[in-house]
Amino acid sequence: xxxxxxxxxxxxxxxxxxxxxxxxxxxxxxxxxxxxxxxxxxxxxxxxxxxxxxxxxxxxxxxxxxxxxxxxxxxxxxxxxxxxxxxxxxxxxxxxxxxxxxxxxxxxxxxxxxxxxxxxxxxxxxxxxxxxxxxxxxxxxxxxxxxxxxxxxxxxxxxxxxxxxxxxxxxxxxxxxxxxxxxxxxxxxxxxxxxxxxxxxxxxxxxxxxxxxxxxxxxxxxxxxxxxxxxxxxxxxxxxxxxxxxxxxxxxxxxxxxxxxxxxxxxxxxxxxxxxxxxxxxxxxxxxxxxxxxxxxxxxxxxxxxxxxxxxxxxxxxxxxxxxxxxxxxxxxxxxxxxxxxxxxxxxxxxxxxxxxxxxxxxxxxxxxxxxxxxxxxxxxxxxxxxx
Length: 388
Fold this sequence. Notes:
37% of the residues lie in helices and 27% in strands. The protein contains twelve helices and 18 strands. It has helices at 10-21, 46-54, 58-64, 88-94, 103-114, 161-165, 234-241, 247-255, 297-313, 319-351, 356-368, 372-383; strands at 2-6, 25-29, 41-44, 70-75, 81-86, 99-102, 119-120, 125-131, 134-139, 144-147, 149-152, 171-184, 194-200, 203-210, 214-221, 262-269, 276-277, 280-282. Helix 1 runs parallel beside helix 5, helix 2 (46-54) packs across helix 3 and helix 9 (297-313) runs antiparallel to helix 10 (319-351). The chain is globular. It starts with a strand and ends in a 5-residue tail after the last helix.
């Protein structure tokens, strides 16, 4: 039994790990010749960490996960604390800690864990053909590969998704721009063991500790799509957007290296119910492209992989068994991922001032927050995963 895995990102590598646990051979194909992650880091919440443990890659999280023990919101203008609390009750409730990690390091270590020389890079898929006996992938370099089934983990711009759905999906602009990168930990900016977020004016500045004494930072600003900005103006742009904001925000802006800072227009895709067509399954961003507003993008891909492996454990390794396993995967995942995409979209709108009255009401709630409500929301999301 052989699977073709399209994409060597977090979704593709975790899918390969899950299938390998079931004794299924995997050939992995990656479009680019060298992995260049979009985004400096990502938050792998406890559900994602549990998935990495389950897949045999928990040591990667131990090595890369930052010491995020507390959480705080500050008024962006005055710098005053709106709420601050320990994440220990969350860890106690769900049985695992959250791990903010460097995206590049995570992908690199997952690839090394599998075997870098076992992945075929520079293989951009153009089309797929299915027969009664399996699937064949055709790549833009003129080569092709065949297997019993395919897992398409080829990202938000998936080339395979249209063949599964039967129509082309449009990405939806979420009405804000995100800048993100890494800086050395500086406690004049924020405590080194805390997820700290400054909010105001529908904007957000957030700092998370990752391994090796670094902060992952991001800035969010509601802006029109297609605004022309580049690295040469990055510091001036952020200084302008956050004029009058608190001293830690100004310190962070001055610490940024424009050459290693990403500027991304944030999008998602309207959720869809079809994740599988016969012997092809969508996984990760190809299946559920979301905004990063609840930190579940990477976690969702890891959950997909775990469920995929569980489904293959329930069926014989025959062609009919493959079809049954993939349909079970679709049934298990489609409602969960739809809920996460829509939950992130709702949080996105509140955070970024789509209705400023609603956003101001959220700011007022934060000033009264003890941490209990935020932890309850995080707990619900985490325990909704397959390894609760």
